Amino acid sequence: MENTLIVDKTQEVQIELKHWSHSQDQSFRECLRKWYLRTVVGLEQKRKSDALHRGLAIHYGLEQFHTLDVPDRSLDVLEYHFSEYYATQRDIIADEADYPEEALTTFDAWHDNEGLRTVKQLWDSFGQDEGIPALTLTEFTAEVPIPGTAVKYQYRLDALVLNTETPFIFETKSMGKDNRKGYDMYDLQAPRNVWAVNMTLQEEQGDSYVPIHHLMYNFIVWPGKRTGVRLERRTTTPSAPMQLAAVSDLGLIIEEALRPNLVIYPNWRGTWCRNCDFFAICEADYEGRDRDEIIDQKYTIREKPTGAIIHEVSN
Question: Please, what's the b/e burial string for 95-111 (b: 16 or more CB within 10 A of its CB; e: otherwise)?
């Protein structure tokens, strides 16, 4: 029997980075190909999930609602801002859909039923008596130095509440599956955010700086076939050891990402990969189909990816 020729599709690359982020860090540790395609190549799916549009609308509605002083908040205000943003997504849905009329019917039906019902539950659960001060800063993005490297850590926060004796980070997490258990003592993003924002604020505010110790989460789990929407508000305070553990190896990871012969390979895990944005590409490779055709059909490329190739050797 003749030997079967195994074609090696790995790549050896050297790259440069504009910055490092929590999402980059996650994908680098999870799968090098996933990290490479998103961070260096800049691939993005052409069609975004309906859940993403829904989550963005809820985020926007809550953000606008919480920028008001407590007496000015109402269910009508929350519904208005949610619906206002949701309507801006209709054209995007129509442009991305294979059957626009059917997609828009489903899109509108979700707003009129589950969407407004979720907003009402948010008001009933949190809006009437929560007393959270007006948000000071929203969509806050900054960069801080990563010890031992020339690369900066970039982070983004939904909001900061600073006009209070105990300032805090305010985040909304919406999810299709109940992943609330992931935001526990093993979570890395919360301690990294506390570490990073304190570095930024201390530099900006000087003597008036008041440290941030905790984050407040709004958890929204979308309704399923057998369950209604599930809501939770949780406060977490990452300790100093937790912050150290979350940040301590970033320099080593970046050193690995920047080495001159980094081998890019897929961490193929079968059904576990199905939720990855780049599953279609790896599936094409696995089945021996043309991956370039899949990329043309399903993906676009960002103008300015976070990373760039300095040198590449394809095997």
Answer: eebeeeeebeeebeebb
Residue 56 C-alpha from the chain's centroid: 11
Identify the pLDDT of residue 20.
96
Please state the pTM of the whole predicted model: 0.88
Rounded to an integer, what distance in angstroms lies between the CA atom of residue 117 and that of residue 92? 23
203-216 pLDDT, tens digit each? 999 989 999 999 99
Q: Which tokens hold the place of 147?
A: 């010890």
Number of Cβ atoms within 10 Å of the Cβ of 61: 25
Where helices occur in the chain by DSSP H, the ranges are 22-30, 32-35, 50-66, 75-88, 90-96, 100-110, 116-122, 189-205, 240-247, 250-257, 279-287, 291-298
- CA 220, 124, 113, 82: dihedral to nearest 10 degrees? -70
CA 308 to chain centroid: 21
303: pLDDT confidence band, cut at 50, 70 and 90? confident
The phi and psi torsions of 90 (rounded to 5 degrees) equal -65, -45
